[in-house]
Amino acid sequence: MKRLLILGGTGDAAKLAREASQMSDLEVVYSLAGRTRNPNLPECKVRIGGFGGVDGLVSYLSEAEIDLVIDATHPFARAMAQHAAEACVQANIPRLKFCRPAWRQGDVSWISVVDYAGAAEYLKELGDRIFLSIGTRDLKAFSSLTEKWFLIRAVEQPAMPIPLDNHELLLERGPFDEAHERTLLVTCQIDALVSKNSGGAMAAKLTAAHDLGIPIVMIEQPDLPEGKVLDRIEDVLEWLQ
Ligand code: NAP
Questions:
Q1: CATH number among 3.90.45.10, 3.60.20.40, 3.90.70.10, 3.40.50.720, domain 2-101+223-240
Q2: Cα(210) to centroid of ligand 1, in Å?
Q3: Contact 39, 32 (CB under 8 A)
Q4: At the topology level of CATH, where does 111-219 sit?
Q5: Per-position pLDDT tens, the chain of length 241
Q6: What share of the chain is helix, strand, coil (3-state, %, to 5)?
Q7: Which of 116, 181, 195, 218 could join 141 via S-S bond, C-beta 3.0 to 4.6 A?
């Protein structure tokens, strides 16, 4: 019996954990940072909370007798990805990064930026009413834009106050279809949309904004640590075999 640690926190990661749990001779441990109050939990062993950096993760891998690691965290979970890469090298354990392919421009086009500060800089010229569709943890970079009004969307009430003078918080859980997103953009009179390039199927907010001629500012994915990356669950299951 081998023991697999899946670093999770996305719908795809939970799906992968469910499917990997069906494999014979494999015990799956699914790990979450513990940010969400009602997380999507697969039917396997679950652990919740940080490991305590690289050293903490190296200790955990040894104590929990982990044989291999799949980092299926969100592409913007940069610290966890780096820690996983370093800890697995130190512990001499195979590690795979699972990451949905980033969205590419084609039918939908956007202004690409590398970080939140870059997005905030562009917004200065892009109207007054902004749909800041990036979650609620990285909003500080936009707090100097005091003349703007921001629409923020979250699944649940954020633990910390939102650091923006003028904003409205909308609590709703996706997935959202294009009609829903179009109505939201029109009703809120949105002038520009900011998104992270989370990848996978093209998000309805992007196609809706594009159709309405609303400019999109896209924060592109940070570089991944070196190592094997797969972007389809089927390929990951094959790698596990
Ligand atoms: P992060 O900045 O890379 O990680 C910060 C710290 O959180 C890590 O150093 C680690 O703490 C802990 N951590 C993160 N993921 C963990 C996991 N799966 N299991 C155990 N500990 C974990 O990550 P983040 O951007 O805060 O994201 C946190 C979680 O939310 C991840 O699971 C990610 O998949 C999910 N998520 C993130 C985004 C996003 O846009 N960033 C979007 C959707 C979902 P220690 O150093 O103490 O080990």
A1: 3.40.50.720
A2: 30
A3: yes
A4: Rossmann fold (3.40.50)
A5: 999 999 999 999 999 999 999 999 999 999 999 988 888 899 999 999 999 999 999 999 999 999 999 999 999 999 999 999 999 999 999 999 999 999 999 999 999 999 999 999 999 999 999 999 999 999 999 999 999 999 999 999 998 999 999 999 999 989 999 999 999 999 999 999 999 999 999 999 999 999 999 999 999 999 999 999 999 999 999 999 9
A6: 30, 25, 45
A7: 116
